[in-house]
Amino acid sequence: MKITSAEFIISAVGPAQYPTDGLPEIALVGRSNVGKSSLLNKMMNRKGLARTSQKPGKTQTLNYFQVNKMLYFVDFPGYGYAKVSKSIKGQWGKMIESYLSKREELRFIIQLVDIRHAPSKDDIAMYEWCKEIGIPTVVVATKGDKIARGRWLQHTKIIREQLKLRPTDTLLIFSSETGQGRDELWAEIKRRLYE
Ligand code: GTP
Ligand code: MG
């Protein structure tokens, strides 16, 4: 995918700040530190446009990025980060829940899980909840560079089983370090938006 423009638009704290131009939106969800912002930077070919950090909990708002004037990526705060205060957690929860259940522009979500680990309870709950309310999900296993290629299948098998993916459900392997999976994910996005 050739990137002709990639722009940070807004860190939204609520619906009043969401864009109003009706472009399709794709939300990135997953545990803190799983690599959502890094994946976005790789997809957009813009190092550092989405802020990344070794410290989990970096992203705390819905961060909108417009790509090629054709879609928005919405970078979500990570879930499952214990150190944030309860009240902040509650606020995030509400904002995310209402975005996911009400936002008409949302076309599907990309749910990230770390290829090295079995999905957490939060991962499973998130996947099930999205399925329940009817939001299509593409699962991406991140940090593919952290394990040998020969072990990918073994790890993705566990992820598939625990999330109860059907054989036809998409699971892609990604690495923000090597660019592994970038072309496949763009192909998947285009297919879902335009076919
Ligand atoms: P929050 O904003 O806290 O929810 O985290 P996030 O999911 O946006 O994670 P982020 O992209 O900030 O990445 C967290 C850490 O993992 C950073 O140190 C990244 O450099 C590292 N990381 C992310 N993706 C990869 C990857 O594919 N491979 C490797 N080796 N490291 C990665
Ligand atoms: Mg982030």
From TrEMBL:
UniProt entry keywords in alphabetical sequence: Cell cycle, Cell division, GTP-binding, Magnesium, Metal-binding, Nucleotide-binding, Septation
Limits of the EngB-type G domain: 22-195
Cofactor section: Mg(2+)
CDD domains in alphabetical order: YihA_EngB
Pfam families, A to Z: MMR_HSR1
Functional summary from the UniProt entry: Necessary for normal cell division and for the maintenance of normal septation.
Family that this chain belongs to: Belongs to the TRAFAC class TrmE-Era-EngA-EngB-Septin-like GTPase superfamily. EngB GTPase family.
PANTHER family for this protein: ENGB-TYPE G DOMAIN-CONTAINING PROTEIN, MSS1/TRME-RELATED GTP-BINDING PROTEIN
Protein name per UniProt: Probable GTP-binding protein EngB
Encoding gene per record: yihA
